Amino acid sequence: MSDDDELDLFRQEMKGVQRLKIKPKVDLSKDSTPQPSLIHRRQMAVTKAETDSNHLSEEIIDLVHPLDVLEYRTDGVSHGVFRKLKRGEYPIDARLDLHRKSMQQARAEVFGFIEDCLKYDVRSAMILHGKGERSEPQAFLKSCVNTWLKQIPAVLAFHSAQNHHGGVGALYVLLRKSERKKSENRERFMKGRVE
Predict the structure, then answer these.
(1) Closest Cα partner for 164 from 81, 104, 85, 87?
(2) Across the chain, how many H-helices and E-strands are there?
């Protein structure tokens, strides 16, 4: 039997058979107009991404004890400078009080505070975060500040304050010099020198 004969036989057997009309069970076509709530969410996501340059973590926070002494210094900060900071011997040019702030408020304020300090050439500042003995979890805001300051490249060092400045409920913060201050220092120390 040839292919043509098989095809003719198949057509004879199928004579009178009609294709079934089946409605699709799932509509796969896309709705061309998104819902207003989706449009709003998309706009807010773009707006927040454009305006929020704050990179401080909200998820990974290393918890500390309310009475822990916090200390941190980057490479390049001498022991003498760190010892002076630890003793509270640098003048405090700016203060930030975070008492009774939520985590989101504190995150925004710490970020803005450090930016302002850099803008106005503040080298030594203080952040009052409290001990957090009555918060749940304990010392949460203190833990947040400890984590956040380590994430800011402009922070060279920090240490828990002396008792008369708030003790373990506050931090002395040492910030890097602005480029303007660095060039002023270079000019001042190079005066009278011959190269």
Answers:
(1) 87
(2) 6, 5
